[in-house]
């Protein structure tokens, strides 16, 4: 069997205080028993996620999203490159005390109720009993499980399980929150409440990295996004910038005659119309996502445009 080489140290300057997550040429190759390359899950990923932003990680199944999150948590070792969290190597386990994590499937003890679950995780962080009780009451209220706080988790629906999973991820008042499919299993009302909660967490100064297949949810809450495909970064930037169609201009006006409707800005003023707006139309995030994936399949070597 071959042994895995330690990732090379970067000569770049250390991450600044406002950058919570930084990856530098981060790559991960899964190998078989004989050490032969089986899957290249991630290829030379360069990312910066800043304090107080909601960052969306998007991509089809197998694009490297879950691998990226596991590398950031230190659950996997990189084949090459670096993953830095709070300026520390991601493999430094002490940094996880400042992180909250909601996995795609919450692994909770089904025989415990909501209060017992949160108390248990509070104990793992050595929280005093009084603090655990205060945090438990606050979080059960925040995620809307007041009426089910005494019920065993085995009786919970998928949506209720997501809620208690989020409460568990917040028990330690984390500075960084990693959310994998946070709205999975929620009804429309629960989805809206989850998105509102994510926005409130950002307003409190939290940094949030969320991975999701539900593109409208990402479009609603994320400040910036990265789109991955086959382990490569294909697009990166602010949501509003990426969705704007720069080479098309749309004009909205009222009070124009039929003859004036075909005219442009100067003619609107000439005919006494009122210009309501002139800007660029936007795509939906779904349209952007599908365009990038199709282009990536047609031109595998294409890299991200590098938007900020």
Tell me briefly what this model is.
This is ABC transporter related protein. Helices cover 31% and strands 25% of the residues.
Query: What fraction of the residues are assigned to beta strands by DSSP?
Result: 25-35%
Mean pLDDT: 84
What pattern of helices and strands is seen along the backbone?
EEEHEEEHHHEHEHEEHEHEH
> What is the percent of helical residues?
25-40%
Largest sheet: 6 strands, mixed
Q: Give the uncertain stretches in residue-range form.
A: 1-15
Gap between N and C termini: 42 Å
Characteristics of this structure?
four-stranded antiparallel sheet; 9 helices; 308 residues; six-stranded mixed sheet
What do these coordinates show?
- With 308 residues, this protein is an alpha/beta fold.
- The chain has a domain at 250-279.
- Helices cover 31% and strands 25% of the residues.
- The protein contains nine helices and twelve strands.
- Strands 6-7-8-3-9-10 form a six-stranded mixed sheet, sandwiched between helices.
- Helix 2 (114-124) crosses helix 3.
- The protein is globular, with a radius of gyration of 23 Å.
- Residues 1-15 have low confidence and may be disordered.
- Keywords: ATP-binding, Nucleotide-binding, Transport.
- Residues 21-255 form the ABC transporter domain.
- Pfam families: ABC_tran.
Secondary structure: elements and pairs:
Blueprint: E1 19-31, E2 37-50, E3 54-58, H1 65-73, E4 80-85, E5 88-89, E6 99-102, H2 114-124, H3 129-142, H4 158-169, E7 176-180, H5 188-203, E8 207-211, H6 215-221, E9 224-229, E10 232-238, H7 239-243, E11 250-254, H8 265-270, E12 274-279, H9 285-298
Parallel strand pairs: 3-8, 3-9, 6-7, 7-8
Antiparallel strand pairs: 1-2, 1-4, 4-5, 9-10, 11-12
Helix pairs in contact: 2-3
């Amino acid at each position: 069997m071959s042994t895995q080489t330690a990732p090379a140290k970067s000569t770049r300057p250390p991450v600044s205080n406002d950058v919570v997550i930084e990856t530098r040429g981060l790559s991960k190759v899964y190998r078989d028993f004989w050490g032969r390359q089986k899957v290249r899950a991630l290829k030379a990923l360069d990312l910066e996620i800043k304090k107080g932003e909601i960052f969306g990680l998007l991509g089809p199944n197998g694009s490297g999203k879950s691998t990226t999150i596991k590398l950031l948590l230190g659950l996997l070792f990189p084949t090459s490159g670096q993953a830095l969290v709070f300026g520390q190597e991601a493999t430094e386990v002490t940094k996880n005390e400042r992180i909250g994590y909601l996995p795609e499937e919450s692994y909770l003890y089904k025989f415990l109720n909501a209060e017992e679950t949160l108390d248990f995780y509070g104990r793992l962080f050595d929280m005093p009993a009084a603090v655990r009780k205060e945090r438990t009451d606050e979080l059960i209220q925040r995620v809307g499980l007041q009426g089910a706080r005494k019920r065993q988790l085995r009786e919970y629906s998928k949506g209720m399980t997501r809620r208690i999973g989020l409460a568990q991820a917040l028990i330690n008042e984390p500075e960084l929150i990693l959310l994998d499919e946070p709205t999975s299993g929620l009804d429309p009302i629960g989805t809206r409440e989850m998105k509102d909660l994510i926005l409130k967490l950002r307003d409190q100064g939290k940094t949030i990295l969320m991975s999701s297949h539900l593109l409208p949810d990402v479009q609603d809450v994320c400040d910036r996004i990265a789109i991955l495909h086959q382990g490569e970064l294909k697009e990166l930037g602010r949501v509003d910038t990426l969705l704007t169609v720069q080479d098309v201009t749309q004009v909205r006006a009222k009070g124009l005659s039929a003859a004036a409707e075909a005219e442009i800005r100067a003619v609107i003023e000439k005919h006494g119309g009122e210009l309501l707006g002139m800007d660029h139309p936007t795509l939906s995030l779904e349209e952007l996502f599908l365009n990038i994936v199709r282009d990536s399949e047609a031109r595998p070597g294409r890299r991200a445009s590098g938007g900020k």
